[in-house]
């Protein structure tokens, strides 16, 4: 452990903190003992981007538990210090691959309290509970991490404190720091920076779209002004020859809260079939959080039941060619009466890499639940650089792989359509409703379902029924 630096001052501070928490009895028991220093790690570093300048910095790291007990990785923070290219330059973190799973690794940028000529920013790596616990002697394995300028311009790393151009294979590296439960246990920070100060920089992104759908009718000019298209143009999906009907999109107030209703109706023929769709005109949404409160229904408002409907909330862009891999689509799709070979109600969430319409070939990953989802549901979709997650009513519904991440921005859509007319062959008119309370998108930030709820509550407390800060 030749490059190891363990400041004994910090060990003592840790022991004192623990003793204080335990009171006088604890002080006696811990005084002079090594118990409080049981948590201990070494950090190894290598880089695969060794140039003085690079498109991305690639600090690859391994954290080893050299203590005597199990080490929950969620208690560990590692800081990589660098000199920013300019004071206002923004950076983005990404994880290419990690034994512990990129979804379990977080990256946050911060500014040291005492900047130096080689360190006025740092990347702080953390772990979620899903990363688990390291047994004594075990390490995290490879963490292939990277970061780049938000504008993708070349960055200079030759002036970065933690950068080691010669470190092309893993070795102990004291120019990164590691802390466990708020106490520094590894490395030498630059300029007397305290590696346990909380990160100072706000999370990146955060520009939001919120709409409470407070409109009068589908021809309310504010709908278009706010960036929505109420679909009237013909075409798929659904029954060939069906009409997409703006008149079937209506708005009603319920307890002071406005709801959007998408009504889909048929009398058993293509000519009588009216489908509904509302979508953003702009394709400008990619990573971040998508949320909506949606009411699915199992039965028609009137008329005979049984039609094979799809009630949705989704994001999508355009397929530029069959199997083009820059296609992207993320769906919540509820089939109240089955369809696609399913005999009864089923909720799908599906993440698409791409597809070929003819002959049909799909490259996607899906999760499903065969039960009724009639009624109101809180739907949340999150996309970061490592995975796609779907939540229904606060519960994780599915996690999909990095292979299905979006390559290009997308629109946000709601629609209700008929797979075919074979589910109910009657010519008696019937109609089905899908209602939408609100939609929220937060750019580049992964929010928990609870954070989504809090953000919506804040909009409503402020009297804001619509806001769009998302850059086009
Ligand atoms: Ca630099
Ligand atoms: Ca794709
Ligand atoms: Ca509403």
UniProtKB/TrEMBL annotation:
Ranges that cross the membrane: none
SMART domains: CBM_3
Keyword Transmembrane in annotation: no
Listed SUPFAM superfamilies: Carbohydrate-binding domain, Concanavalin A-like lectins/glucanases
Protein name per UniProt: Family 16 glycosylhydrolase
Native species: Streptomyces nigra
Residues annotated as domain CBM3: 37-191
CDD domains given in the database record: Glyco_hydrolase_16
Domain GH16: 196-447
């Amino acid at each position: 452990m030749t490059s190891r630096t363990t400041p004994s001052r910090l060990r003592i501070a840790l022991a004192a903190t623990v003793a204080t928490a335990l009171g006088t009895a604890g002080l006696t028991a811990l005084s002079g003992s090594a118990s409080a220093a049981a948590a201990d790690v070494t950090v190894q570093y290598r880089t695969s981007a060794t140039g003085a300048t690079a498109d991305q910095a690639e600090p690859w790291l391994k954290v080893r538990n050299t203590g005597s007990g199990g080490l929950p990785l969620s208690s560990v923070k590692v800081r990589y210090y660098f000199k920013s290219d300019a004071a206002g330059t923004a950076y983005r973190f990404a994880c290419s691959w990690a034994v512990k799973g990129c979804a379990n690794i977080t990256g946050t940028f911060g500014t040291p309290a005492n900047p130096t000529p080689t360190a006025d920013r740092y990347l702080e790596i953390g772990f979620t509970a899903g990363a688990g616990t390291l047994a004594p002697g075990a390490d995290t394995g490879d963490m292939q991490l990277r970061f780049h300028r938000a504008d993708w311009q070349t960055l200079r790393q030759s002036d970065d404190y933690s950068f080691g151009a010669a470190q092309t294979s893993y070795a102990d590296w004291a120019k990164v720091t590691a802390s466990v439960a708020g106490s520094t246990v590894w490395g030498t920070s630059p300029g007397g920076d305290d590696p346990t100060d909380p990160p100072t920089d706000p999370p990146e992104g955060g520009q939001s779209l919120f709409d409470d759908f407070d409109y009068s009718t589908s021809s309310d000019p504010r709908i278009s002004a706010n960036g929505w298209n109420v679909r009237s143009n013909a075409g798929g999906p659904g029954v060939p020859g069906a009409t997409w009907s703006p008149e079937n999109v209506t708005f009603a107030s319920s307890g002071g809260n406005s709801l959007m209703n998408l009504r889909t109706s048929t009398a058993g023929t293509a000519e009588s079939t009216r489908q509904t769709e509302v979508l953003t005109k702009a394709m400008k949404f990619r990573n971040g959080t998508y949320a909506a409160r949606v009411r699915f229904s199992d039965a028609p408002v009137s008329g005979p039941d049984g039609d094979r409907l799809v009630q949705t909330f989704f994001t999508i862009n355009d397929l530029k060619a069959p199997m083009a891999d820059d296609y992207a689509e993320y769906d919540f799709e509820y089939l109240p009466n089955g369809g696609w070979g399913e005999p009864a109600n089923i909720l799908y969430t599906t993440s698409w890499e791409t597809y070929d319409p003819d002959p049909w070939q799909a490259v996607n990953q899906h999760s499903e639940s065969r039960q009724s989802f009639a009624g109101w549901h809180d739907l949340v979709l999150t996309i970061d650089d490592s995975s796609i997650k779907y939540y229904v009513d606060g519960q994780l519904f599915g996690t999909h792989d990095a292979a299905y991440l979006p390559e290009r921005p997308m629109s946000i859509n709601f629609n209700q359509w008929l797979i075919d007319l074979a589910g109910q062959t009657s010519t008696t008119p019937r109609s089905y409703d899908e209602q939408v309370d609100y939609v929220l998108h937060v750019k580049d930030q992964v929010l928990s379902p609870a954070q989504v709820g809090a953000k919506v509550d804040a909009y409503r407390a402020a009297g804001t029924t619509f806001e769009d800060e998302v850059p086009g």
